[in-house]
Structure prediction request, 320 residues.
Amino acid sequence: MLHKLLLLTNFIFLFRLFGDAHILLYHRFGDPRYPTTNTSLEQLQKDFVYLQKHHYKVIPLQRLVKALQNREPLDPKWVVITIDDGFKSLLKALPLFQKFHYPFTLFISTKPIQNRYPDFLRWKDIKEIAKFGEIGLHSHTHPHLTDLSNEEIVKDTKKALKLYKKHLHTLPKSYAYPYGEYDKRVKGLLQSFHFVLCNQNLGAVSKKSSIYDLNRIALVGKSNLPQALHLKYLPTQWIEPRTYPKDGILKEVALKIDPKYTNAQLYVTDYGWRRVKVKNGYIKENLHLKLTKRRVRVIIKVKHSKINTKILVRSRYGTE
Ligand SMILES: [Zn+2]
Prediction:
């Protein structure tokens, strides 16, 4: 009896130990001039109290990367915090990060810092911040990468690397796409610099995630952190569409998921959620949706908040 009970508790223990981690994304703090990218200090404190109360462990991005590289199981209580752009308002939030001992990765665009744009941190601030946070790269000029040629992307990245090295005397390990915009071509180019790549696709990180395609959940305004942490990773093979449709009409979505699911929900930017049928793990939806945004998210979701996102970005270069 005792033996059986031990087995059972072991099983529950294992079950709780393995799962999906989450990467959060913030931009500005305590700066109500920009409601679409701002998190108030009160909200940040609330988020941190929630993480602490529910025993989440905020770990450095590189710890998660190491676990993925070593194929270690991920702890579902792991949370990584990232901050994009390098706005000066981070200085207001730093005491909170320090109070909770929460590490973070700050992704900086080097041009606004180098040119001392008023809203941005200075290199001296970043040097200080680098003592307790990782500094990642977020391009030089914060461009729409899919609209740049290969040469322009390489040039922008090399410029950013040069300034980073000059001021921080080291090289960045990670890169976050400006606006979360990328396609296969952009990804391939940045991967050749050996960066860990962070996207801005809604979803969790599982042991099946690639370090070159890490999902991040953006939190702004009254963030719904509990809901964000509830999301799980759905392994998905996206078949169609492969790129942003040239005529701007989304005609078909086709993908493969675990055949154990019989129905799912599909989301397309501007069109919301719809129920879709799954046949032997295969989903094929004929649509005729006119896309108006340059950035369109297609999301597949099954029960227990398991999701996967495919981003389609309009590109002047039209390649994959
Ligand atoms: Zn940005």
User: Anything to note?
Assistant: The longest helix spans residues 150-168.
